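Have a think about this chain, tokens included, and walk me through the fold.
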Amino acid sequence: MTNTASKNTTSHHDSPLTGHDILVLGATGKTGRRVVRVLRAAGVSVRAASRSGEVRFDWTEPGTWAAALEGASAVYLIAPDEGYDAVPVFVRQAVEAGVRRFVVLSGRGIEHVGPDFGQGMAVAEEAVRGSGAEWAIVRASNFSQNFSEDLWWQPVREGRLGLPIGDVPEPFVDADDIAEVAAALLTRSGAEHTDEVYEVSGPRGLTFGEAVAVIARATGRAIAYEELTPEEYHAELLAAGLPEAAATAFGALFALHRAGHTAEPADGVRRVLGREAADFGAYVTKIAATGAWARVE
């Protein structure tokens, strides 16, 4: 992880925050586990917390919070999709326990969403802004890893991805870049890069059809992208077993994207790390070599 920006050359070890633990919530998740890995590679003491992780933390069980917070000076905060009323309560408790900095994972365009999607992220943003502690908010584009780790992995393996997005581009961001940005914001000395919002994305926009075509070429497979109406998409999600609330939330997410709020690349990776964000093509080449997109037999 070479940092080429002259103003960003502060070492993790120079930060007064690294004298105490950093609490990483969602530490078994897509970004959380990567944040843990980056911090530990830099010699930072990390409390990796989740319902099933090294340190037990459950948003629905406030009794688990105190032990997770013990000795922590900073928190990587990923809000829950449900029960997010707990977030302001947790933030207050964290500050009382000695936490001096929060880094929140949020989503690009969150300021434009309605009640059906992203309310946990919006509540978390508001809670840390008013906490009295240092804060940084990382608003991310759609993760490249959504094609290989969960949301769209199975449809891609099966040879067909259907979504209601049209030709609106998305500058997919690599989750490894998000982790490096978050780790830097958690550990930089003083108030450098705090009390700010960072929008992070990849360096170029691709339509979902173009993204699927990149994967198809890399795998040598026929993988189709199919444009759906919002109503068709909702029906497919329900048929796949998703609850109504989840299907509605995904519909609201794609309505946000169709409005173009997240279409342009953002400069957050460069601002924090002093380098360009990883390109989607490089991600696809790496993942294709693992066989992750092999055809479902």
